[in-house]
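Data card: per-record layout.
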Amino acid sequence: MAAFHCEEEALLRTAVVAAYLCGMALPCAAQQPTLRGRVQDPAGQAIYGTDVTVRTGDQTISKTKSSADGTFSFIGGPGKYCIAVSQPGFDGGLTCTDFNSSQVAQVTMKPIMIEGGIEVQPLLSALIAVDPASVGNVPAAPVPPIPPVDIPASAHWNFGALIQSGFGVTEERGDFKFLLVGGHAGRILTPNFGSGFLRSNFEYGVEVFPFWQSYTPKFQRSNCHQILPPTTPGTPAGTYVACTAEYTVGGTYTGVSVTPAIFRWNFTHGERWMPWIQGAGGVIWTNHKYPAFGEPLPAPGPITIGPPAGDFYLANDGPSANTSVWNFTPQFGIGTHYFVKPRRSIDVSANAVHISSASLGDKNPGVNASVQFSVGYSWWK
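The structure for this 381-residue chain is written out next.
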């Protein structure tokens, strides 16, 4: 393999692919001719998820990834093959060799330049060795219990599906329940900062919940409007209102929620775990004005109410006692990704969400605080 200066070696590591071809001139125990290989680093640990592409002439005969123990294989007789080995964050390397006898071929992949310099990653130098007598005898090397995951090096986009549920916690909102189903898209905007537990990066994200529901208590209210005071002598002065019969409000509200601004700080020191903290802001549209507002009457109605209760019912059940179908959702949350594969993660989070119409309606009772938990699954690109 190529020699590097000592200063460069501090930043470099090596990935080795040992490949073996069962030649047609040798007995192969009823096997088809097979090229087998293994991707590993200089310490002998397997490299998981490396892209391996094999071509002969203009034909691609194999396109695969190295498995959890770093191995790959394809069926093919002796002949000339072009083998490409690539890792995210590196320029791909390619070698074309006539695999008919024992020999060694070498291909090098260099780190891709990024803004602000080179991401601190190794140069991958792939060694491809051919030995027809060694079919099925790939050199042993320890397999890491957890395939390393370096998201900034391997992916910048993530797309996921999630379900979210929670409840209100303040000002008589304990009976409010929430259920949301939707998706998340995020873009990592920066390289990693810091080291150790403080190693982190910044992500901008968006979430859309085409299914949003809130389950609220039902109660009775009326529609009241102000009327002239009775002309009967001795009638007290003040506000008089006429109120309709009571009807039921509250119950289940359905709508759509969009959170177009999610500012997330990811902590990337782990291998499978990537915790985050975030702040976000969004908007909700509901099929009815949310939440319900009003007061039950002292009697079922229709009824006329005079002072001193007239002012109270005019304010709470009158023409200017409505909320809005539009509400805003400033929020803060914590969560984590757990990578089940290098580019697949299970995501969980807990969020504190405030719901308010910002006085778009006559009344703004809102939900001062709710706690909502989510679970999802993401694909990283």
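Known properties of this structure: Confidence is low (pLDDT under 50) at residues 1-31, 112-149. The chain has two domains: 13-134, 151-380.

See the next section for split statistics.
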